[in-house]
Amino acid sequence: MQVLVVGLIAGSIYALIALGIALVYKATRVLNFAQAEIGTGTLYFTWWLCTRHHLPWIVGALASIAAATAIGLVFEALVIRKMMTAPRVTVTVATIGLFSFVLALELAFFAGTIYLVPPPIHPGGVRIGGVFVSWSQWLALGVVGLVALGLAAFLRYTDFGLAVQASADDPVAAQLMGTPRARISAFTWGMAGALSALAVLLIEPTVGVLSPGAFNGLFIGGLTAALVGGLNSLPGAFIGGLAVGVVEAEVKAHLSFNVIPSSNVTAMLVIVLGVLLLRPQGLLGATAGRRA
Amino acid sequence: MSAALLEVRGLRAGFGAQTILHGVDLDVPEGKVVGIFGLNGAGKSVLLKVIAGVVPAWSGSVCLAGEDVTRTSPERRVQRGMAHVPQGRQVFGSLTVEQNLRVGAYALRRRDKSRYDERLAQVYETFPKLAERRRQPAVTLSGGEQAMLAVGRALIGDPKIVLIDEPSAGLAPSVVEDLLGVLLAVRSLGLTMLLVEQNIRFGLRLSDSACLLQRGRVVYSGDTASLDQERLGTYLGVGRLLADDLTKGLGAKSTQPRRASRRKAATVSST
Amino acid sequence: MTMAEDAGVVVASRERTEKRRTRFWTDRQANVLVAALLFVALPLLTEHAMPKLLEQHHYFNLDVGVAMAVAAISLNLLLGYTGQISLGHAGLLAAGAFASGIMTSRWHASMVFGLLFAMVVGAAVAFVLGLPALRLSGLYLGIVTVIFGLAMQSSILRSSLLSGGSAGVPMFRRVWGSTMTTDNAVFLVVSLLLLLGVWLVDVNVVNTRLGRAFRTIRENEAVAAAFGIPVTRYKLLAFTISGAMAGLAGAMYGHTIGFVNNEKPFDSTMSLMLVIIVMVAGAGRRLAVVFAALLFWLFPSFIEGLHQWSYVLGAFLLMATVRTHPDGIADMLHHMRRPPRADADAADGEEELPALPQLPAPVRALESVVSLTDTPLLDVRGMSVRFGGLTAVDDVSLSVPAGSVVGLIGPNGAGKSTLFNAISGLVRTESGQISLRGKEIQDLRCDQRASLGIARSFQHVGLARDLSVRENFLLAQHQLAPYSDIEALLMLPRAARAEAEFRERADQAIAALGFEEMAHMPVRNLSGGQQRIVEIACLLVTAPELVLLDEPSAGMAPAAAENLAARLRDLRDALGRTVLLIEHNVPLVLDTCDYVYVLDAGRLIAEGAPAEIAANRSVIDAYFGAAV
Question: How far apart are CA A129 and CA A148, in angstroms?
């Protein structure tokens, strides 16, 4: 039971990364390999504000989200927008460039030392029915729920949100209906940045340390979740996240450390290979109704 | 008013090293329906895309209601009163019928939200089928219903001119007939339309004037009634096939469709 | 060999001397020489035979650089030629290093076996990863490999089965028994020889059907399929070869540093670094990539503290190159030297097309004409093709007599292309029979039908536009290649002979067209009409009896189309071929064909001599749309 809850909480954070990947993929057919690294880079901002300037966690967190959004927007404006007609694989390589760039900057400035970010709220937690859930886990659950619902509502009920969905269905037709293609693209990448920062902020208390590439596991989890969910389906990404979190927790709990350390990462590889073999469109992919 | 609503002058465009349009001139006067005809690869669809702003013009100009829009984005042209029924209809499959219409009204809603409800009611009145299915995802509609949705989505923004790309392509004959009724009704509203069509009979019955395109050049432009039959056949690459057959089609056009349109017009409240 | 592309019009004379040189110094001789060198030189290498030019640690750095050059060639083969991304190449290197390490330290075997084992393991791992991923689009290999790389680093390599905890594996340079070589200079010579070997294998890949298939897949999978290339199989082959090279590179690196574990030196940043090197230097350009790899790994090792910043710079350059010049710096420099020719727009369509090449007529055709004059060359009886509920071709019968040009017309969506697909074997027929020279072929595979003498063109697909004219002629002979992949990699006699034959036939065709000046130009620089004629000539290079042409005049100016009609008559009159032609351009069909079939909504609605067709009422309906 404890394992299941831990899995669900980790999974909900994977779902945030998966949502970012699915949003970008749905809108642009590009796989954003920098989805977790953007937030990792800006987490140093939180560390700097909170430990050097002793500002409250929430200020550092908001600064990190703002910075990550800015990275998304700048990347969109300087790189993505110039590659509107480029092959999608080439654009995907550009996101590998962004991934490497953020990682390289982290390595250049922060390599070798482990940084600690203060916890978002007081340590401790509450025990419900024999299952211990810490306050930061509660926070993660709450924030992920709010964000997922908020994003869903935004996409469904606002004009701009509908335009984003229409553009994902068919960018040219959406443009012919008068929706602003450039702003939709900017929104997508800005949102991807914000989701990245949020996911990293929420998983940091679980990982405990901040070092370059420390959240690679988060990216792998999110990527697997997005693939399980179907890459272009937002509900799929969410469900995929939870599923991957639970499977990961179960594997971790049942495989001895010595045979395969960090067996959860290997489990992800097996899941991905399995999904590609058996159901490459994922759980909810392609059912979302796209007429080719 | 001498200037046409849409004026295209000396338009050249293409992809890479390949020139597709070699200097096209085209006028669409207000309240008229102009049909662009030609063979596969003549450049019809590219011409429409350049006018829409999706494909850049190499040189030449596109003027909408006296304003040069050659260098503006597609969405800006929509704000200026252009609307589109894209090739293959391209309804947004994952959105519902009503959401599709809302996206079609994106520019209108930003300008004047209150007019949206009124326009929506008008579209539903014109296409009662759409009202029935307003909550269904568009992907579940039949081909004919999707065609209606695509037309409704173009009309809802109260456009000055509607660009229609191959409306009859890929539809069953009975649906084509329904669609013709719908478009004739829309035409009777006095709406300006620019139409690209492969099905010549279909296209000629809708248009007031024709523009024949061959290999990226305009080879005939003028009234459909005075269209030289022999030449039409030659330029469309069907040679001597035509004979008297098409004349019949044209003769019928001047009388019968008008009546049909008046009948249908009853269901379309005029604007 | 890649420099062959450089030879354009201007340097035609230099090119000719080059050609003479390559004839003397054939690919195969180079391969044999290297094999001999490896055999003779290796036993002679001892520490005492090495001149002490540099300090040991300089040799050490050079050893690492050479290993990474091999790794770069490996990724270049995958990313540069085939266009598939691997983000976990470090994982493949690590697999190779661990394999060789276990071989030399735990099993006390010679490093020779270690290196071989490394290649086998690298290839095997790549095969397993690629099998599910490569059936899908290029993106999925990226996903699988990025996860694989991290799983290797944080999990698999730490397994007690492999390394005994995170202790890692020592990498002995065991020559034999307990004899080891510790001298870095000796190992540099070994490394250089291995680099040379890998280089030559890569050259062999480029010069055989493998490389042509890879590069066509990168450009357009549909074109590759049209040339008869099994796309998934070749993508998997590319990744497997790449994996073997990566395994070797990893083992070379490991034997240089003497010890590997899960993080050192093969961490995920190395994978990214390799992608940066290949993309920034120029994907598909072997020399540039090797140079960049050496530069990237050698330069920082001489200047302290540069390493991190070179990575920052590299990542920045990757974004910049991909955005502005996705073909990389080498390509940019190449274009600065010789700007790509802008096509003369005015000439488009007005130009005169050259006559089709007078290639040797098929031997089979003659005998069939003599012996079976009254049997049609192609006979289709009652053929139907269904997709789900849709009947695309409905009970169609037609026959094409030998030595005639037969036309197939009909409006869009009438099922003309589907009929072609059924005849050439790309789609299964539901019922009916197809016979070629009286022999039923409906149960044969596409390539088997091709070998019986059916060639077809594809609407809008055409040629591999990034490849040169000559390479397209070579590509057209893909299905004739009698050699296996291994023979191609090592350029064994059969492969070398076949390739020489292909080149001869390609050069014949080019000479017959009078296109010698354009032979080494990428096809995209040719005008539309020239491309079309090369496309048709490509069909002829395999000496088919029956040529199926799908809309050859599409996108041609009227004058060019008229010219094309004359060339099509040449096919029949001068070359003795039989043609079945799909066309939208009805005047062209009426002018060219001996007999015409009209298809509408999957059914034959008319057939007859051109004059009869022109007067047929139902044909008019089909074209103008039924009365509404």
Answer: 27
